[in-house]
């Protein structure tokens, strides 16, 4: 069946829809996004649909989380393709829900038959199990709707109200992007207050964002549950990201360097003998730094018409709660390995080369992380 998605542009109409659902005791899962949807977003929506009756997806390229020299203007905006992906996914969810519904109907029929035969009421509760949610609403507000007190939503620094979660928002990504988390927490608080979802969904790919959102929800008593979905990756390990469309063929080939480096650090942690002294920061991050250096130098030796230039922003081994850098890993707590690299613009394009969106001229900042799970 053709899916018809309901798009909401303003807050009042969305709230009205939410209120109706509340009155019918339907649970809502919210998946906040900035659009340019890929399999990572879709897996969060699938998870939300498994765990809620209704799924709200927000699509909003939030101006306050971009710094003055960042890519707000060129951030990929792919509305028609996004709607097509959401309609296709919703059709998949509908098929799944009707399959589950007929399974549930069979359970009811069997239970009734058994109850009639032997007055047993076993498994009656199973009929109450959710049949799987659908995509109920796409919330795609204008910047003016989200920032009603600000004269220019693209310059929202004056007269705006902000939520800041410090010191977490100053570390790691926050050190490179000082206004970033203030913008993220502010827009998420707005979305949480507008939608009042039972559950909100975030991707592991943006690990610091997950830690900060959890902290915000806890500290401000936001009445929602924060759920985290695993990082979806391309076959070669590159974390999916809306910005990957800017890489082009040449930079795409070396873009796995960050993930491979983090994996080499993870290997050290996983293979370390717990009976020995604790692993130091250098023990863990050393192999990752070596690999990054090796790939970077290998590329630098190539001519400008062939090379990709990689600039390391940071490699981190941090505490899972405070995100403070660790001098050594306590295997009973584990840690978070994370990093960011910039894939610099291509210097000399070759005729016929696919430079990606922006023809290879846009710097692409990649982030990734791996959680070191406690080993004892
Ligand atoms: N590869 C992925 N796997 C799982 N979740 C993801 C992945 N990429 C993004 N997400 C999550 O999707 C949500 C929306 O992210 P967003 O729209 O910024 O996409 P994005 O791919 O992270 O874009 P970019 O990194 O280029 O800003 C966030 O919670 C984010 O963590
Ligand atoms: C959570 C979010 C949608 C807020 O704009 C954004 O930071 C993102 O997409 O990760
Ligand atoms: N997913 C992170 C959003 C951003 O980089 O702005």
Automatic annotation (TrEMBL):
Keyword Ligase part of the UniProt annotation: yes
Keyword vocabulary terms for this entry: ATP-binding, Ligase, Nucleotide-binding, Pantothenate biosynthesis
GO MF annotation terms: ATP binding; pantoate-beta-alanine ligase activity
Stretch forming the signal peptide: none
Reaction catalysed by this enzyme: (R)-pantoate + beta-alanine + ATP = (R)-pantothenate + AMP + diphosphate + H(+)
HAMAP family in the record: PanC
Protein name: Pantoate--beta-alanine ligase
Organism: Xylona heveae (strain CBS 132557 / TC161)
């Amino acid at each position: 069946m053709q899916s018809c998605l309901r798009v909401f542009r303003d807050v009042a109409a969305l709230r009205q829809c939410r209120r109706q659902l509340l009155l019918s005791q339907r649970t809502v899962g919210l998946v906040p996004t900035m659009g340019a949807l890929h399999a990572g977003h879709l897996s969060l929506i699938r998870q939300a649909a498994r765990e809620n009756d209704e799924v709200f997806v927000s699509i909003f390229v939030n101006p306050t989380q971009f710094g003055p020299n960042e890519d707000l203007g060129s951030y990929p905006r792919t509305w028609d393709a996004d709607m097509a992906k959401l309609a296709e996914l919703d059709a998949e969810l509908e098929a799944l829900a009707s399959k589950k519904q007929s399974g549930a109907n069979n359970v009811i029929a069997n239970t009734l038959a058994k109850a009639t035969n032997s007055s047993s009421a076993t498994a009656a509760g199973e009929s109450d199990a959710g049949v799987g949610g659908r995509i109920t609403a796409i919330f795609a507000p204008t910047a003016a709707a989200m920032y009603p007190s600000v004269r220019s939503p693209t310059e929202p620094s004056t007269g705006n109200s902000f939520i800041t979660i410090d010191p977490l928002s100053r570390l790691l990504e926050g050190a490179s992007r000082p206004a970033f988390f203030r913008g993220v927490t502010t827009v998420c608080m707005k979305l949480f207050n507008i939608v009042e979802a039972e559950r909100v969904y975030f991707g592991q790919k943006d690990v610091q964002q997950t830690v900060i959102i959890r902290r915000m929800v806890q500290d401000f008593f936001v009445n929602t549950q924060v759920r985290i979905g695993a990082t979806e990756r391309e076959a070669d390990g590159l974390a999916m990201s809306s910005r990957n469309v800017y890489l082009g063929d040449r930079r795409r080939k070396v873009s796995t360097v960050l993930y491979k480096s983090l994996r080499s650090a993870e290997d050290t942690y996983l293979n370390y003998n717990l009976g020995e002294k604790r692993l130091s920061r250098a023990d863990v991050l050393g192999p990752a730094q070596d690999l990054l250096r090796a790939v970077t130098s290998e590329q630098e030796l190539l001519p400008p018409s062939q090379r990709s230039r990689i600039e390391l922003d940071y490699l981190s081994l941090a505490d899972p709660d405070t995100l403070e850098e660790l001098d050594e890993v306590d295997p009973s707590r584990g840690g978070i390995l994370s990093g960011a690299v910039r894939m610099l613009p291509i210097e000399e394009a070759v005729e016929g080369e696919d430079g990606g969106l922006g023809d290879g001229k846009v710097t692409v900042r990649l982030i990734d992380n791996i959680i070191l799970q406690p080993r004892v």
